[in-house]
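=== Structure Prediction Worksheet ===
Name of assembly: unnamed complex
Input type: mixed (protein and possibly other molecules)
Chain count: two
Listed entries:
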Amino acid sequence: MLEALAFYIFAAVTLVSAIGVVASRNIVRSAVCLLGTLGGVACLYFLLNANLLAAIQLIVYAGGTLILIVFGVMLTSKSPWVVFDPTRGQVVGAVIVSILLATGLCMLLVGNEWPAGTAMTASPHVKDVGTMLLTDYLVPFEAASVLLLVVMIGAAYLARPEK
Amino acid sequence: MLTIGLNHYLVLSAIVFSLGILCMVTKRNALGILIGVELVLNAANVNLVAFSRYQTGAADGHMFAVFVILLAAAEAAIGIAIFMNFYNTLQTIDVDRGDELRN
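=== Predicted Assembly ===
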């Protein structure tokens, strides 16, 4: 009962701010609404027994990626309030297509019965996650660290000032 | 309605996914497109974690979600570096203006 209430509240926060992201014409407002979506998804992770992931979501996404986007907004416009609007026809077409996509996906899901699986009873301990990261997922982990190095060098190279 | 199951999370993430696609298609500001990609990746992450919670019972979905978050951060860093170059070249961040292969 309490879980259902919490789920509906967090789902409402996530959905309303996701709609805000799409509907606001101003990019700064979109970024602020994205913060609501990221926070709502982090709360859903708590409900889904993924405590560590919720913390990572808040730190990396809400604390890092979102700040990076806001910096990008500041660096790439003469004023933060510039607005580029798509034409009305483009908006109507895109809205129709995405509503069709959403209803199609939901209709697929609602009637579907999943095979009985094993439910997770408690949130995995940080120690277990770390052990998995360095045993079963060692190769992706190392690939990810190389990727981060490449991204760091690449971003510094791309964003360097013109000579 | 009152017992939350896998389908609740899947429907939520389907809707967020569609909103992310809509955001990517309708925004003309390049950073708006990046924000749409973040919405789509978050929807995918909710799916991964929900399947981990209700179907497998193991933390594998969490691992995938961690890597997705990492890739999203990397993609945002590179994307913003590219958009800064775009802005330096064209003096605007409107993606509709970037339709020439050479100036």
